[in-house]
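Hi R.,

As promised, here are both runs. First protein below:
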Amino acid sequence: MKKKSLILALSLVISTLAGGCARPSVQEPEVYQLSSTAMGTLVTETIYTAGENPASSVLELLTQTEDQYLSWREEDSDIGRANLQAGQGAADVDGKTMEYLKETLQLSRDSGGAFDPTMGQLTRLWDVEAANPRIPGRKKIRQYLKESGYEKIHLNDSGTPQVELEEGVSIDLGAVGKGIGCDEAAELLQKDSQVQGAVVAVGGSVLTLGSKPDKSPWKVAVRDPRGTQEELLGVLNLVGETYVSTSGDYEKYFVQEGKRYHHILDPFTGYPADSGLISVTVLGKDGLISDGLSTACFVLGMEQGAELLEQYQAEGIFVDEKKQVYVTDGLMENFELSASGYVVFPLSP
């Protein structure tokens, strides 16, 4: 049987020496692995199944989800058509897109606007991944702030699902898109009774399902936010179905005059969030929620972020600028620190 010790996926590295609550099977499963790209990021899969290899089907589903529902770049996607209709009336969308948006807007409300799916224009204005990135002008930032705001998205699902945007508003679900990909992958794999265990990483979001034959825990490792891409902060030992996402200031950034400008923007200022945190990892009830919460908590800071996690019955790991690692009660026994220079503290609500 093949083994894979580490799978690197942007902010997370997943070790597939795994375990959990195995599904019954009449035969020993085969292990299949796939590494490719979809949804604009690296996708890695390790699947244990007694049936046919579903890895390619997962990858196709992720691509379809992006192109048909989520992409702001595709004018024919649900989000693309809604953006084109901004200020001109409602756009029909698929029921899946409507559910994504409902959950997204609820998180926006619950976070007091710290999570906002209308920040796409500002994100592109900053363009921190450009060859020669620079700080945008204050006037332009203020202009785009006025055109943003989750309250300007209006949903109607009384009949055909419809989305109506106020003039100038643009939806960008990039901050929850990888988590949605994990949700879609979970739904597909759970329909296959031959699949006994799987770990799927879509960028910085990770799904684990079932178990390996040896029933040892899934090992989901969190990247050291001040280390190289291969260096780890520590490892989470998890069982069964879990959804983990990480947001950090090390993923996309540039440095100007000694200051780091990263891609996680504060919806209240239009500038990179400055909450004293450098990384937030969240284990939530589904992919969309864990993905969105990691961003919201990064913007809010540790105290308010911990309160938001409690509201969602989620767990988290907060890393601050002093290399202090705060772990919520529900994860303390599951987290093993491996990086030097950090100190772990329990975080109770």
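And here is the second one, sequence first, then its structure tokens:
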Amino acid sequence: MFDSSVFTSQFWEWFIIIPTVGGILGCFALILWLGGDRPDPDKKVKTMGHVWDGDLAEYNNPLPRWWLNMFYITLYIAILYLLLYPGLGSFVGFLGWTELNQYQQEMDAAETRYGPIYARYSKEPIAALTENPEAVQLGHRLYMTYCTICHGSDAAGIKGYPNLRDDDWLWGGKPAQIEQTIKIGRNGNMPTASQNGLETEAEIKNVMHYVRGLSGAKHDEAAAVEGEKTYKKVCFACHGMTGTGTQALGAPNLTDDVWLYGGSERIVTETITNGRQGKMPAHGEFLGDAKVHLLATYVYSLSLKK
């Protein structure tokens, strides 16, 4: 049986406990010291030796009782918190509270409240739902929560992450294809030059010029002629003989001016040399079918606004 204690140390537990408890005890000691004895009304109060304008002096009086009591109350609350909730190393507190349980409770409450709303649209076709403003708005809210970090708040994408507002799709732009992409994720795999059998810089450079020529970009025609020979030996397997791509493989169309990583000579050379391994995480298990359906509705609606 696996013994996790072999890989853990109690040092870090005590590293938390000792400063925490020591800090609270130190605060108690500091308050007792500052509180001092109550001054005797019949005795003259000592001063700190600071005098201004001859009569204004700084007296050495203890802190007022109400002020001291506020400090004490704060410390007692801290002790109560550490007894009820995690805060002392591996001690979980008498309430047994954990972040995971709290998160799950919040997710369950949200599912109870919003689940029926999402489920209401789960049986309707995505194409029909794009005509329903409420469904599209729900999908937009899901997009803003889960997708903006990669595709941007406007869905225009950033380098390495596709623009969802155009009609250029790596894996297909039909409603079912979009829903499948969100549900299971996608893994791009462009091999490196050496994996493709391109050994020299000249071969890579020639292919780069040919690929740029396919999209109508500025290129060296003589180099492109040589690059075409290499392309039709190696690259056609994924991108097709004419360079229009293969959606089943996620191989992009090279004949348009849409570039996922950039279309400059330097970046295309880098792509051919090092390959690309883009990854779209699967969201099906995390979001559930109903949310994925609405999210796909929103994404599909964007392509209809071209």
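A quick note on the second one: The radius of gyration is 33 Å. Let me know what you think.

Best,
J.
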